[in-house]
Design goal:
Radius of gyration: 19 Å
Organism: Solanum tuberosum (Potato)
Strand order of the largest sheet: 1-2-3-4
Subcellular location: Secreted
Number of domains: 1
Helix content: 40-55%
Family: Belongs to the 'GDSL' lipolytic enzyme family.
Order of helices and strands: HHHEHHHEHHEHHEH
Number of helices: 11
Pfam family, one: Lipase_GDSL
Strand content: 5-15%
Largest sheet: 4 strands, mixed
Shape: globular
GO biological process, one term: lipid catabolic process
Length: about 280
Amino acid sequence: MADILGQLLGFDDYIPPFASATGREILQGVNYASGSAGIRNETGSHLGNRIFLDLQLQNHHNTILRMVDLVGNRVATNAHLNTCLYIVGIGSNDYINNYLVPKHYSTNSMYTPSQYATLLVQQYAQQLKTLYEDGARKIALFGLPQIGCIPQELQKHNTRKCVDSTNEAIQLFNEKLKSLVTDLNTNFPQAKFTYINMYSISSIMSTLSFLNYPCCNVSTTTAEGQCVSGQAPCHLRAAHVFWDNFHPTENGNVIAIMRAYNSFLPSDSYPMDISHLIQSG
């Protein structure tokens, strides 16, 4: 979604990942995302190496040190960072690749859905404070989509309808995250935090003429639910919401970003959409 937003904002190319960003291009933006990573450090560990949020924040700090060398001092660097737009979308894997897979993680037996959501948001709050302390001032926080409606959950529960228990757990997280945005804006008045209601935005997919099953053949082994390597995806890719059992297609991401940038409904964002966040002082 960061790449689509970059295009919307007029960037000539994709925002480079941290691993390959060099020279002055880091002043244009850096992508710190990592597949299967989460708020919690152990999230996604059964899938192999990943850069969890704490490490992403460390990478961001290292980028800042490189910026200081480029612009000459920390004051000028901070002034630059204060104008930057930060997009933070994390937490889905803390359910998909943690809480919802008890064969790999104990969190499901240790915490109720409410307790787990509280635990996640408390840790997330500290991580966002670190981001603020490193100079971020315009931060859009993406809530979680309707994970109970993704193909993986439908297959796991052998149903064609969204799994209510999963979506209820997701909404607990989203409600706490939205409240956190209020707290952050109160405690850090020099910054602007906004909440993007991905749960509501993702619900529109069911009202459109999109197919809610994977575009590719999905694996049932190590990379369970992901596309089988080396096999071509479906021909009618534009008609699908998901590539595999988890990841949305470009169409799904475009719709989400368009509504995050310019809210179609008042419930799409709180307290403002991304277009107004960019313009904020």
